[in-house]
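We modelled the chain as a single entity of 95 amino acids. Its sequence is:
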Amino acid sequence: MILPALGILAGVLLGIADSRILVLTTQKALKKEREQAIALIRLSAAARLLGTFIALFVGVMVLGGVAFMLMVVAFIVMRSIMLIVSAKNARRGPI
């Protein structure tokens, strides 16, 4: 009973962390020159991708089938929610 809850919690935290890294990287990239911004975004994308794959790999090894699937679903849901929130905030302008 505890493993599915841990899977959901891990997915939510992974989704929030991934979105937050994306937002912070974008904010820093907007303050840099074009070439530096492109390099920063590429590095951030590679780090986020690697971090997500590592977290999912550890999740499947530790949690097992059902809890891992709940982790993946929670991650997808959180990323979707955070993207919608970011899009709404972008329409309003800078905070």
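As a brief sanity check on the tokenised model: Residues 38 and 62 are 36 Å apart (CA to CA). Helices lie at 2-30, 34-63, 65-92.
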